Amino acid sequence: MGYVEEVYAKVVEKNPSQPEFHQAVKEVLETLKPAIEANEELYRKEAILERLVEPDRQIMFRVPWVDDKGQIQVNRGFRVQFNNSIGPYKGGLRLHPSVNIGIIKFLGFEQIFKNSLTGLPIGGGKGGSDFDPKGKSDREVMAFCKSFITELYKYIGADEDVPAGDIGTGAREIGYMFGQYKRITGLYEGVLTGKGLSYGGSLARTEATGYGLLYLTEEMLKCNGKDIAGKTVVVSGAGNVAIYAIQKAQQLGAKPVTCSDSTGWIYDPEGIDVELLKEIKEVKRARLTEYAAARKSAEYHEGKGVWTIKCDIALPCATQNELDIEDAKTLVANGCFAVAEGANMPTTLEATKYLQENGVLFAPGKAANAGGVATSALEMSQNSERLSWTFEEVDNKLKGIMVNIFHNIDDASRKYGKEGDYVTGANIAGFEKVVDAMLAQGV
Ligand code: NDP
Question: 78 to each of 120, 182, 199, how far by Cα in Å?
Fold first, then answer.
């Protein structure tokens, strides 16, 4: 058995019932093989892979809170601090009923390489809870967030671990969490990112993941002799990433025609009305049926289906494993030539392989959606300086970072003879920097 296979087998054995974590480790280690085989003796001696797949620590805790009926509810909170070789742990907090330790570990593991790719000094971590913010009153969300931080505050700090938003955690939740952290510790510091603009948030953070996804996609197309203008784009999701991906795609002259949420999806052949979508999702927090009700050109369908629409470019921006092998076959048959992941691991391994084998340009999430965490790191810089930069300043830096990420992953793919394989390129480019730091710092 090779080194990669040995380590992967141990991961499966030591972490049973964590299929998403196994999937993430497998995907990363398999693609790292060329870089690992070139240094196998040293990496084995230093147990680099064994150290990489074992988080620095995993924190799991009870989150009790009182609902509007006076009933006590109990959720489970998580923070996995995976690797801080190149900077303080950094990664979002996911609030969704599906959250468990395996999902947080998969996300934390991926975050190490993504954060490294940004070129900024941030380590990898992730957290969250199985709390479902849907259908909860503002007061209930506040009660949950304050209880969550009452435990988590012990483990985080501006130079230690800086959580951010993710699915279910937006500006409202970050505000309640920041308020509680400040109250308990007495510190006004950049301990969380995704904050409101009146108390230390960064301009362009809200837009950053979606905009960054399009900056990278545009550069990938350009370097492959294609232009994004005039192309038809299908997008899944209708949350933070999807909304700003749709907006930037339109600004670049493309035509996004779909979006979706966990109950259904919209096909709007005239192009998604992003202002209407924002009103429904960001202001009213309503379902997509309202979009179809307000717009004649739109069709609403129950369930899953955006990948059946003919397109040039597909941008999965909802959640993990939402694009499977059947979807990949449909996309290829319909002439789709580029897929860039806005969400984390939205494409199954089998689907990724199929897309790549069929000549589809494929940008993996850890590169394509790194704009969010990169701008979070820019928020940390502004907090440390006690200054705020303009929207244009942040947006320009974001664009520079995304273009740079694309060239780094492209170069890494060429260095190991895998030209155009951006999955391998992203994993290797992210990995090499972290490993250098781990080796330099010793055991
Ligand atoms: P949001 O909560 O704002 O939106 C998520 C969207 O995806 C919603 O439309 C939601 O629908 C839909 N969705 C969630 N779970 C499912 C599911 N199981 N099946 C179908 N649809 C689902 O989250 P974000 O937009 O912030 O995040 C989307 C993805 O991007 C995640 O994978 C996240 O980890 C990743 N990401 C986000 C970053 C950020 O800066 N926000 C940065 C990097 C990655 P509904 O509302 O009905 O649940």
Answer: 25, 20, 26
